[in-house]
Amino acid sequence: xxxxxxxxxxxxxxxxxxxxxxxxxxxxxxxxxxxxxxxxxxxxxxxxxxxxxxxxxxxxxxxxxxxxxxxxxxxxxxxxxxxxxxxxxxxxxxxxxxxxxxxxxxxxxxxxxxxxxxxxxxxxxxxxxxxxxxxxxxxxxxxxxxxxxxxxxxxxxxxxxxxxxxxxxxxxxxxxxxxxxxxxxxxxxxxxxxxxxxxxxxxxxxxxxxxxxxxxxxxxxxxxxxxxxxxxxx
Length: 234
Ligand code: SAM
Hints:
By secondary structure, the chain is α/β, with parallel strands linked by helices. It has eight helices and nine strands.
């Protein structure tokens, strides 16, 4: 998969894209990340990318021209069609279902806003998918772009060491009728820590009993913490 990221702060990305699973995915050839500075496409003397809002008010607004030209130029760098995505607190809240759909696309083009946001006309013209990482406001779309990249890339076949591990995570469809459940609790050594013991069944060596315990815990946790997941239609 090819992931292009358009931002005014490209320096924020490399430490994240080169570490852990994202770094391994790139080294293994499963994903390629291309970070572009929108400012490189500014066609004015001072490489200006933002301006004061019409109508007054605080902050600056990202101008149409540099961003639009950047998107068109970056898309032309590769013939693979890209799904355009703008990270926005006003977008659809990102959920695992959407992450799975995006992981099946060959190419994503992520646009990180900054300041007060992006001139609405360029969003109308580009007609992207708008995605939010939650009901709170961040200073820029860079962290949301990294969140989305991580969530998508870990689902690409071959990226995670153990083929099953993404399928056993929270929000993967694995309830009795395909519901998306929370993961079960996990434990490692020592067997007793600060007087707290690991559940006996996990030490029993009985794999069927362990599987049954885990399935029951997943349902219990989901019922307690996220009953809304059990009510969803499948
Ligand atoms: N004035 C905008 C509003 O209230 O909707 C907020 C702009 S925010 C300070 C600047 C940029 O950060 C946005 O253009 C977007 O790219 C990004 N951003 C902030 N919060 C986000 C969120 N929850 N999800 C995705 N992107 C977000």
